[in-house]
Amino acid sequence: xxxxxxxxxxxxxxxxxxxxxxxxxxxxxxxxxxxxxxxxxxxxxxxxxxxxxxxxxxxxxxxxxxxxxxx
Length: 71
Description:
Layout: H1 2-15, E1 20-23, E2 30-32, H2 60-67
Antiparallel strand pairs: 1-2
């Protein structure tokens, strides 16, 4: 269940707008990227990284984005 927890945290981060890099011109939907900060669950493959602490999964930048309400 640990990997499912990590993957869920990562995908919920995307749903909340983390690592959005723009919008698709045709559909208007967000285009998602990944965080580049080490140890962040929003890194590409972060769900599988042993460096991510699931009790504190987001880096300071992603956490600040969430605390600002996504702006």
